[in-house]
Amino acid sequence: MSIQNEEAIVKLIFHGGNMRQFAYSAIEAAEKNDFPSAAAHLQKADQEFAEGHQWQTKIVSSEQRDGLNASFLLIHGQDHFMTAKAELEMAKRLVTSYKKHEELAARIADLESDK
Predict the structure, then answer these.
(1) Using CB atoms within 10 A as the burial measure, which of 7, 8, 36, 74 is most buried?
(2) Residues marked as binding?
(3) What is the set of domains in the chain, with CATH numbers?
């Protein structure tokens, strides 16, 4: 594995960690019904994914060019990055659920106030 590949793998881990942090921050904001903040965190998480994916593409193209060399670090980096991506997708669903819950609670409150 070359230094360039090691750098790319570390970048995968870095961006995966950032993606995960923003995803959980989005969930926390949604729990407080702060949906603009939740959306901003999800947008930042998507940006982290895009940046990490560029590094992932560099690794794949390098591995194809130089032959497959699946080191422990490569496996760890890929696992970390893709797990963070899965968590981001789950966070998006949770934020949507919290938003629907808040909308329904507001409708119920309106209906009850009309009594």
Answers:
(1) 8
(2) 79
(3) 3-114 (1.20.58.80)
